[in-house]
Amino acid sequence: MRASKYLLILIPLLILAACKQKGDSTAGNETPDLPDTTEVRAIPAEQLITPGKSIGHISLGGSLDSLVQMLGRPDAGDAAMGSQLSTWYANHDTAGYQTSVFSRRNMGNKDEDVSRIKKILVTSPWFKTAEYMSTGNTMKDVSKYYTLKEGNSYQSKQGKTIKTYSDIAKGISFEIDGAGKCVSILVHAPNSTADTYLDMH
């Protein structure tokens, strides 16, 4: 009777030990649980590129004067016939990242004294679309999210040919170098080819 009592206690202990030993013997070969990297972090508002609307805190239709109050006096600019191009460089260095804004006065309208932002260009990879597209991405990357049509081209300061590809319906353009890499991103009004092909260089 006493022997059977000990057996009832001993058998579960042996089973438990066997299970533990089996678990320990395979522990070194198991793949540890990794954090879920499929969840993409939302882009903060000050970095977000929104096609047809804005880049960061700069919005299409906004006042150039208000932007100057926010960013300070532009490092470079040009104006003619009610239109204006204003450019800011990172650390005021022309070799640094560039933010350019094309604005225009609505001549004859009641707010003709206000120069309204029509087009925004950035070269810094700090700014990103909701899909995490930024300068530095390839044409192949960008094409996954945007329907692009080839537009004009220009020569960079380094003498390289840069081509513009636009998703006109969404209001965004990507300037691509000869290696297929994005060097600048532009936001403009959707379905507006006139705003798409304005030269900002």
UniProtKB/TrEMBL annotation:
Keyword set for this entry? Signal
PROSITE patterns the UniProt entry points to: PROKAR_LIPOPROTEIN
Signal sequence residues? 1-17
The organism sits in which domain of life? Bacteria
Q: What is this protein called?
A: Lipoprotein
- The organism encoding this protein is Mucilaginibacter psychrotolerans
